[in-house]
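Our consortium's second objective concerns turning raw sequence data into structural hypotheses that experimental partners can test. To show how far this objective has progressed, the report includes one record in full. It was chosen at random from the queue rather than selected for favorable results. The single chain below, 186 residues long, was entered without modification.
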Amino acid sequence: MEVFIDESGIHKQTDHSSIALVYVTCEDAEEVAHRIVEIERRLGIKAFHWAEYNWKMRVRFLEAVHGLPFSVKVSLVRNPVDVPQWFEFSVAHLIIERNIRKVVVDGKKPKWEERRLKKVLRDKGVAVKKVRIVNDESEPCLRLADALAGLLRSYLDNPSGSNAQKLYALYQNKITARLTGGQAAE
């Protein structure tokens, strides 16, 4: 099993935004990555990134990847919140598997944050050498995690929005765990 972690909305500080951490697990990440690249090619995009596309393309991408073999764990929190502490708490409570080959986290993290994350994972029994922090352009499964983090944050921010509501309903059966918290929990 491989785990891909992405956050959405961590830069916002207003009380009307939310943070979504998505933990995507794949038994055969190579196959999932290959199929994501094929889907992106078929849609005529280089590399999917939630913030760069409109709702029409977001819907097309998320509908296309829905059938791939993966599951999702999510932690949703309303802002403002202490992001590093929340991130560590979420990872510690979402990672319960023991057969993890690799944990891939999106984004550029400072060394101190990377070390704290490795400690949390070590405390959970995940080998430290399995953690990689990379850019989502180099890892198709992180683009999947980015899309799901964007969707889930959009749904939490505006549950009555037609696109987010439709896609959330499509993905509800893929969500195997959900943490909700922060100052104004759902």
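The partners drew two points from this record. DSSP finds six helices and six strands in the chain. The mean pLDDT is 84. Both points have been shared with the crystallography group to help prioritize constructs.
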